[in-house]
Known about the structure:
Helix content: 10-25%
Number of domains: 1
Oligomer: single chain
Order of helices and strands: EEEEEEEEEEEEEEEEHEEH
Distance between the termini: 49 Å
Number of helices: 2
Number of strands: 18
Radius of gyration: 19 Å
Shape: globular
Amino acid sequence: MPATPAWHASATLRFRQRQGRTHHQGGASAPLKLLRAYTQSSGHCELPLLHTAGGLVGGDVLKLRADLEPGSRALITTVAAQKVYGSVRRSRSHPEGRWAEQHLQLRLAAGSDLEWLPQELVLYADALYQQHQEVELAEGASFLAMDVVRLGRTAAGEKLGAGRWRSSLSIRRRGEADGAARWELVDRLELGGEALSGDHGMADEPVLGSLVWAAPQPLAADALSALLEQARLARNGLEGTMACGALEQGLVARYRGPSSQAARFWFCRLWALIRQERGLPPPQLPRVWPFQEQPLLS
């Protein structure tokens, strides 16, 4: 079978605050498309991204750059779950398979706030996928990100097989006085082969989730301790293994288990706790999310 032609798509966004509201400018190339934005009660500009190709194949590359100006607030999400099709042993010219890639470059100015909340990523059997996320924050900027990935279409009895998933996330914060940057988080993960079944990997569970919050200011020790305790209590009634811990300025949470819904429910509850800690209105689920459920209710 000949190799399928690859898509290289990009989106470039800029968010600005004008008269108390955040507006966006920018554009996207096919198969990425920007849908109509909506202002949430919290002041976040909710902007959905649509991938019109219906999924990623080996060789596809998606790039997103977003710049937030001082005081702006944005929530970027996706219209549907992203599918990644298998490529290992699917092509005579590339029998070893080809990687589908996504690159994020996010720059947040002082006092800005970005919530990056894409829907689930689903890797089909023998799919190869890697994502690179680079986040640069000014002092007083807040960044919240959720990531849920399903390794194989388990409802169809399918596993990841010879596929692999890689993720690279780096978060740096620039000092206000001298502009020098300090690392807040460097996170590298790869799943495939023995890591899918080993106890220190996925232990044969199909769903991995991560949530990261880089807070705008350091939290007092008692406030951070209380937030982490509330986050652990929010696991109530959900299946899977869930853990969370403190960053120097924020928190990180992981999910490993059988259910993408359980991961989504827990992360949405953490999202609500973080909004509450910041004195912001409770979250509004993005209008494009299709779920007939109430993940914010514990």
